[in-house]
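User: Okay, second chain of the day. Same drill as before: sequence in, structure tokens out.
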Amino acid sequence: MNRKWRKSLMAIMLVIACVVTLVPQGQIVFSGQKAAAAVAKPSTVANDTSKSLWADGSSYSDDNNKDLIKWKKIDSKYYLFLPSSVDLNNLVLWHSFSTDAYVNGKKIVNGEATNVFANAGNYTLYAENTSYSLVVMKSNNINTMFLTTSTGNLDAVNNSQKHTVSASGEIVCVDKAGNIESGVLDSIKGRGNSSWKACYEGNFEKRPYGLKVYKLNQKGKKKGIPVFGMEAAKKWCLLANDFDQALIRNKFVYDLCEDAGMAFTPESEFADVYANGRYLGSYLVTNKVEVNDTSVDITDLEEKTTDATGKEAEEFANNRSVSKGGLYDVTEGAYKYVNGPTDPADITGGYLLEFELDDKGERYDQEISGFVSNRRQPVVIKSPEYATKNQAKYIYTYFQEMEDAVYSKSGVNSLGKSYKDYIDLQSAAEMYIIEELSI
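Assistant: Same drill. Structure tokens below.
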């Protein structure tokens, strides 16, 4: 064998040795192997007649109807708002065009992963002899929530002026680390007062929502979901923060309260929220402030009233009265309540109250139970929400005695009691400081 052939043979053997060394033991992988099978087009996309581009929002399950993302037209451009949970180098896309679709000249194959949007930014999509100006944007290091309703939209929910209409479906939550929680979306409906009113009147598009969610345990009992690592709960709030362009005010105050060691401070996490494939925006997700062992851990008087009555208290919601004035008026010294429920043996606690910022009572008139102090401070009774006459009168009287002591020169009311006998001074001072800093 001449020298030339010996060198060629050694080179070939060296290449083979390198291949065997670099691939996993027992396997030799050759280029051109069969690509992964395309993911079937979800029924939502298959039934779409709007000529749209869709993306797989996460690797949650084979049912991609739960985490689809649809492009959104804003003015003359189309936007694909993608969450942290996607990999731009391995993004599965579908489209509902009748012809092939191309992005910057590269063909989009339905259900096949692509890196066409690896750098995000501006693109041109061409299909059906039409060019579309496309902008791709991706979040980073933020949680993602996918909501799908049985109706396929939130139209009825959004068009409810008093946010009484709800929808049900499913919920999927993907946290920043890629961990997933899912369950049943028992209901989604509007929440808030001034914020919901602003949306309904067309001043804001991004609406706040309240969610009720659950999943079944091994015994078939409904339990809450630990959304984004927070304590498991059935009720959650999606704060739109539309009055705050920076979107951080509520989160800042919650964190401030937590750092100050204030009891019952709600947990909160930012999240990109999608509903039926539509990007709703960046929300602050918080657990609902209510009476239970993971929120406000006090005696649940509403539960005790239900036990004493033998029926759910909300069944009496339409049978309401007020001690004086009109049911929807802000009248000094008045308290409103529901008729029908039976009082338990002890009605001294607990009560969860919400103060109005002023004496106009914009929230007060919409709530079931509450009272107005002699100095026109409207107070909503959040729990028990369906307070009986005796319960409303009891907590109104307690509050009024406290208010009388606070406003007296000596700090003592006509009963000889100090305001310190009614309130925890430390927590009251902390609340006052936080409100002064944040309002």
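The chain has three domains: 43-138, 143-287, 301-438.

User: Thanks, on to the next one.
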